[in-house]
Protein backbone atom coordinates (compact mmCIF):
# COMPACT_ATOMS: atom_id res chain seq x y z
CA UNK A 1 0.00 0.00 0.00
CA UNK A 2 1.18 3.50 -0.83
CA UNK A 3 1.08 6.86 0.90
CA UNK A 4 -0.20 9.86 -1.02
CA UNK A 5 3.38 11.05 -1.49
CA UNK A 6 4.45 7.71 -2.95
CA UNK A 7 1.39 7.60 -5.19
CA UNK A 8 2.17 11.07 -6.53
CA UNK A 9 5.83 10.19 -7.13
CA UNK A 10 5.00 6.99 -9.05
CA UNK A 11 2.43 8.81 -11.22
CA UNK A 12 4.67 11.83 -11.84
CA UNK A 13 2.37 14.42 -10.29
CA UNK A 14 2.36 16.52 -7.15
CA UNK A 15 0.52 15.71 -3.93
CA UNK A 16 -1.49 18.86 -4.54
CA UNK A 17 -2.59 17.46 -7.93
CA UNK A 18 -3.71 14.21 -6.30
CA UNK A 19 -5.84 16.15 -3.82
CA UNK A 20 -7.23 18.26 -6.68
CA UNK A 21 -8.28 15.12 -8.53
CA UNK A 22 -9.90 13.89 -5.33
CA UNK A 23 -11.85 17.14 -5.04
CA UNK A 24 -13.00 16.85 -8.66
CA UNK A 25 -14.20 13.29 -8.06
CA UNK A 26 -11.81 11.82 -10.62
CA UNK A 27 -9.75 9.69 -8.24
CA UNK A 28 -11.47 7.85 -5.40
CA UNK A 29 -10.16 8.86 -2.00
CA UNK A 30 -9.47 5.80 0.19
CA UNK A 31 -10.48 5.54 3.81
CA UNK A 32 -7.87 6.20 6.47
CA UNK A 33 -6.20 3.20 8.07
CA UNK A 34 -5.94 2.58 11.83
CA UNK A 35 -2.94 4.95 11.93
CA UNK A 36 -4.97 7.77 10.39
CA UNK A 37 -3.26 7.68 6.98
CA UNK A 38 -4.79 7.15 3.57
CA UNK A 39 -3.24 4.21 1.74
CA UNK A 40 -3.44 3.70 -2.01
CA UNK A 41 -3.30 0.52 -4.06
CA UNK A 42 -1.14 -0.11 -7.11
CA UNK A 43 -4.29 0.27 -9.20
CA UNK A 44 -4.57 3.87 -8.04
CA UNK A 45 -1.20 4.56 -9.69
CA UNK A 46 -2.53 3.32 -13.03
CA UNK A 47 -5.74 5.33 -12.64
CA UNK A 48 -3.83 8.46 -11.68
CA UNK A 49 -1.49 8.11 -14.67
CA UNK A 50 -4.49 7.82 -16.99
CA UNK A 51 -5.99 10.99 -15.48
CA UNK A 52 -2.69 12.84 -15.78
CA UNK A 53 -2.24 11.74 -19.41
CA UNK A 54 -5.70 12.92 -20.42
CA UNK A 55 -5.27 16.23 -18.59
CA UNK A 56 -1.87 16.87 -20.19
CA UNK A 57 -3.39 16.11 -23.61
CA UNK A 58 -5.73 19.05 -23.11
CA UNK A 59 -8.84 17.16 -22.10
CA UNK A 60 -10.96 19.35 -19.80
CA UNK A 61 -11.19 17.80 -16.34
CA UNK A 62 -14.97 17.88 -16.68
CA UNK A 63 -14.65 15.27 -19.45
CA UNK A 64 -11.89 13.14 -17.99
CA UNK A 65 -14.31 11.04 -15.93
CA UNK A 66 -16.39 10.40 -19.07
CA UNK A 67 -13.36 9.22 -21.03
CA UNK A 68 -12.07 7.03 -18.22
CA UNK A 69 -15.24 4.96 -18.47
CA UNK A 70 -15.86 5.21 -22.23
CA UNK A 71 -15.77 2.26 -24.61
CA UNK A 72 -13.52 2.31 -27.69
CA UNK A 73 -16.01 4.02 -30.02
CA UNK A 74 -17.00 6.65 -27.46
CA UNK A 75 -13.36 7.31 -26.65
CA UNK A 76 -12.47 7.76 -30.35
CA UNK A 77 -15.36 10.18 -30.92
CA UNK A 78 -14.58 12.22 -27.83
CA UNK A 79 -10.87 12.47 -28.57
CA UNK A 80 -11.59 13.56 -32.16
CA UNK A 81 -13.77 16.38 -30.83
CA UNK A 82 -11.08 17.42 -28.37
CA UNK A 83 -8.45 17.33 -31.12
CA UNK A 84 -10.56 19.66 -33.27
CA UNK A 85 -10.97 22.07 -30.36
CA UNK A 86 -7.24 22.05 -29.73
CA UNK A 87 -6.58 22.68 -33.42
CA UNK A 88 -8.85 25.75 -33.32
CA UNK A 89 -7.12 27.01 -30.17
CA UNK A 90 -3.71 26.62 -31.81
CA UNK A 91 -4.86 28.62 -34.84
CA UNK A 92 -6.24 31.33 -32.57
CA UNK A 93 -3.02 31.50 -30.58
CA UNK A 94 -1.06 31.78 -33.83
CA UNK A 95 -3.20 34.77 -34.81
CA UNK A 96 -2.52 36.26 -31.38
CA UNK A 97 1.22 35.79 -31.94
CA UNK A 98 0.98 37.58 -35.27
CA UNK A 99 -0.81 40.49 -33.62
CA UNK A 100 1.79 40.64 -30.86
CA UNK A 101 4.48 40.77 -33.55
CA UNK A 102 2.65 43.71 -35.11
CA UNK A 103 2.59 45.48 -31.77
CA UNK A 104 6.37 45.39 -31.75
CA UNK A 105 6.58 46.64 -35.31
CA UNK A 106 5.47 50.25 -34.88
CA UNK A 107 3.36 51.43 -37.81
CA UNK A 108 2.59 47.83 -38.76
CA UNK A 109 0.01 47.76 -35.98
CA UNK A 110 -3.39 47.41 -37.68
CA UNK A 111 -2.12 48.97 -40.90
CA UNK A 112 -1.95 47.42 -44.38
CA UNK A 113 1.53 47.18 -45.93
CA UNK A 114 0.79 49.88 -48.53
CA UNK A 115 -0.04 52.38 -45.77
CA UNK A 116 3.16 51.53 -43.87
CA UNK A 117 5.10 52.10 -47.10
CA UNK A 118 3.38 55.47 -47.56
CA UNK A 119 4.26 56.58 -44.02
CA UNK A 120 7.87 55.56 -44.54
CA UNK A 121 7.89 57.59 -47.75
CA UNK A 122 6.70 60.67 -45.84
CA UNK A 123 9.53 60.20 -43.36
CA UNK A 124 12.03 59.85 -46.21
CA UNK A 125 10.82 63.19 -47.58
CA UNK A 126 11.60 64.82 -44.25
CA UNK A 127 8.02 65.29 -43.06
CA UNK A 128 7.74 66.04 -39.33
CA UNK A 129 6.96 62.93 -37.28
CA UNK A 130 3.90 64.68 -35.83
CA UNK A 131 2.40 64.92 -39.30
CA UNK A 132 3.26 61.28 -39.95
CA UNK A 133 1.42 60.42 -36.71
CA UNK A 134 -1.63 62.36 -37.92
CA UNK A 135 -1.63 60.31 -41.11
CA UNK A 136 -1.04 57.04 -39.26
CA UNK A 137 -3.75 57.60 -36.65
CA UNK A 138 -6.21 58.41 -39.41
CA UNK A 139 -5.46 55.30 -41.44
CA UNK A 140 -5.83 52.94 -38.47
CA UNK A 141 -9.62 53.42 -37.94
CA UNK A 142 -10.17 53.84 -41.67
CA UNK A 143 -8.49 50.50 -42.42
CA UNK A 144 -10.46 48.82 -39.62
CA UNK A 145 -13.83 50.30 -40.63
CA UNK A 146 -13.54 50.29 -44.43
CA UNK A 147 -10.63 48.04 -45.47
CA UNK A 148 -12.05 47.73 -48.99
CA UNK A 149 -11.44 51.46 -49.57
CA UNK A 150 -7.77 51.43 -48.59
CA UNK A 151 -6.29 50.27 -51.94
CA UNK A 152 -8.14 52.95 -53.95
CA UNK A 153 -7.45 55.74 -51.46
CA UNK A 154 -3.82 54.77 -51.09
CA UNK A 155 -3.30 54.59 -54.86
CA UNK A 156 -4.68 58.14 -55.06
CA UNK A 157 -2.41 59.25 -52.21
CA UNK A 158 0.67 57.80 -53.89
CA UNK A 159 -0.22 59.51 -57.16
CA UNK A 160 -0.85 62.86 -55.47
CA UNK A 161 2.43 62.59 -53.61
CA UNK A 162 4.22 62.91 -56.95
CA UNK A 163 2.86 66.47 -57.17
CA UNK A 164 5.45 69.00 -55.98
CA UNK A 165 2.76 71.28 -54.45
CA UNK A 166 1.53 68.51 -52.16
CA UNK A 167 5.07 67.59 -51.11
CA UNK A 168 5.70 71.24 -50.32
CA UNK A 169 2.46 71.34 -48.35
CA UNK A 170 3.59 68.47 -46.11
CA UNK A 171 6.99 70.07 -45.56
CA UNK A 172 5.63 73.55 -44.92
CA UNK A 173 2.92 72.17 -42.65
CA UNK A 174 5.67 70.56 -40.60
CA UNK A 175 7.37 73.94 -40.25
CA UNK A 176 4.09 75.59 -39.28
CA UNK A 177 3.26 73.37 -36.32
CA UNK A 178 5.15 75.53 -33.87
CA UNK A 179 4.20 78.89 -35.36
CA UNK A 180 1.53 81.34 -34.19
CA UNK A 181 -1.90 81.51 -35.80
CA UNK A 182 -1.00 84.69 -37.67
CA UNK A 183 2.43 83.60 -38.85
CA UNK A 184 2.93 84.54 -42.55
CA UNK A 185 4.21 81.03 -43.31
CA UNK A 186 0.91 79.57 -42.16
CA UNK A 187 -1.10 82.06 -44.22
CA UNK A 188 0.92 81.34 -47.34
CA UNK A 189 0.56 77.63 -46.71
CA UNK A 190 -3.23 77.83 -46.59
CA UNK A 191 -3.38 80.07 -49.68
CA UNK A 192 -1.27 77.61 -51.63
CA UNK A 193 -3.21 74.60 -50.37
CA UNK A 194 -6.54 76.15 -51.35
CA UNK A 195 -5.17 76.93 -54.81
CA UNK A 196 -3.88 73.37 -55.16
CA UNK A 197 -7.22 71.89 -54.13
CA UNK A 198 -9.07 74.10 -56.57
CA UNK A 199 -6.73 73.05 -59.36
CA UNK A 200 -7.30 69.36 -58.58
CA UNK A 201 -11.08 69.82 -58.42
CA UNK A 202 -11.13 71.70 -61.72
CA UNK A 203 -8.96 69.11 -63.47
CA UNK A 204 -10.32 65.86 -62.03
CA UNK A 205 -13.67 66.73 -60.45
CA UNK A 206 -14.48 67.20 -56.80
CA UNK A 207 -14.90 63.44 -56.26
CA UNK A 208 -11.15 63.20 -56.76
CA UNK A 209 -10.74 65.05 -53.48
CA UNK A 210 -13.74 64.00 -51.41
CA UNK A 211 -16.89 61.94 -51.27
CA UNK A 212 -15.46 58.51 -50.42
CA UNK A 213 -15.63 58.45 -46.60
CA UNK A 214 -18.87 58.51 -44.62
CA UNK A 215 -19.42 61.75 -42.66
CA UNK A 216 -19.36 60.15 -39.17
CA UNK A 217 -16.03 58.46 -39.87
CA UNK A 218 -14.66 61.63 -41.48
CA UNK A 219 -15.64 63.59 -38.35
CA UNK A 220 -13.82 61.04 -36.19
CA UNK A 221 -10.69 61.25 -38.33
CA UNK A 222 -10.82 65.06 -38.24
CA UNK A 223 -10.97 64.94 -34.45
CA UNK A 224 -8.00 62.56 -34.32
CA UNK A 225 -6.00 64.85 -36.56
CA UNK A 226 -6.70 68.02 -34.57
CA UNK A 227 -6.05 66.24 -31.26
CA UNK A 228 -2.69 64.96 -32.50
CA UNK A 229 -1.67 68.28 -34.09
CA UNK A 230 -3.79 71.14 -32.67
CA UNK A 231 -2.61 73.71 -35.30
CA UNK A 232 -4.69 71.74 -37.80
CA UNK A 233 -7.79 73.34 -36.26
CA UNK A 234 -6.52 76.75 -37.35
CA UNK A 235 -5.66 75.43 -40.79
CA UNK A 236 -9.22 74.15 -41.20
CA UNK A 237 -10.59 77.57 -40.19
CA UNK A 238 -8.35 79.35 -42.68
CA UNK A 239 -9.24 76.90 -45.44
CA UNK A 240 -12.89 77.59 -44.67
CA UNK A 241 -12.28 81.27 -45.36
CA UNK A 242 -10.89 80.26 -48.75
CA UNK A 243 -13.80 78.15 -49.91
CA UNK A 244 -12.92 74.71 -48.52
CA UNK A 245 -14.31 72.86 -45.52
CA UNK A 246 -13.18 69.78 -43.64
CA UNK A 247 -9.84 68.02 -43.40
CA UNK A 248 -10.25 64.32 -44.06
CA UNK A 249 -13.03 64.95 -46.57
CA UNK A 250 -12.29 68.33 -48.09
CA UNK A 251 -15.25 69.88 -49.89
CA UNK A 252 -15.49 73.06 -51.90
CA UNK A 253 -17.99 75.54 -50.53
CA UNK A 254 -17.10 78.49 -52.74
CA UNK A 255 -16.90 77.85 -56.49
CA UNK A 256 -15.23 81.19 -57.12
CA UNK A 257 -11.50 81.19 -58.00
CA UNK A 258 -9.26 80.96 -54.97
CA UNK A 259 -6.38 83.33 -54.33
CA UNK A 260 -3.29 81.67 -55.70
CA UNK A 261 0.09 81.23 -54.10
CA UNK A 262 3.07 79.00 -54.62
CA UNK A 263 4.39 76.86 -51.81
CA UNK A 264 7.82 76.80 -53.35
CA UNK A 265 8.01 80.60 -53.48
CA UNK A 266 6.63 80.81 -49.92
Task: Give a structural overview.
By secondary structure, the protein is an all-alpha fold. Helices cover about 65% and strands about 0% of the residues. The chain has twelve helices and two strands; from the N terminus they run ααααααααααααββ. The protein has helices spanning about 5-10, 15-25, 40-55, 60-70, 70-105, 115-125, 130-145, 150-160, 165-175, 185-205, 215-230, 230-240; strands at about 245, 250. It has a two-stranded antiparallel sheet with strand order 1-2. Helix 1 packs across helix 3, helix 7 (about 130-145) runs antiparallel to helix 11 and helix 9 runs antiparallel to helix 10. The longest helix has about 30 residues, at about 70-105. The radius of gyration is 33 Å and the shape is rod-shaped.
Task: Lay out the secondary structure.
Layout: H1 4-11, H2 15-23, H3 42-56, H4 61-68, H5 72-103, H6 113-125, H7 129-145, H8 150-160, H9 164-176, H10 184-204, H11 215-228, H12 231-241, E1 244-245, E2 251-252
Antiparallel strand pairs: 1-2
Helix pairs in contact: 1-3, 3-4, 6-7, 7-11, 9-10
Instruction: Give the termini distance in whole angstroms.
Output: 95 Å
Query: How many domain regions?
Result: 2
| Run of helices and strands | HHHHHHHHHHHHEE
Strand order of the largest sheet: 1-2
> Sheet with the most strands?
2 strands, antiparallel
Arithmetic mean of pLDDT: 82
Counting helices, strands and paired strands, the structural category is mainly alpha
Indicate the radius of gyration in whole angstroms. 33 Å
The total beta strand count reads 2
Number of helices: 12
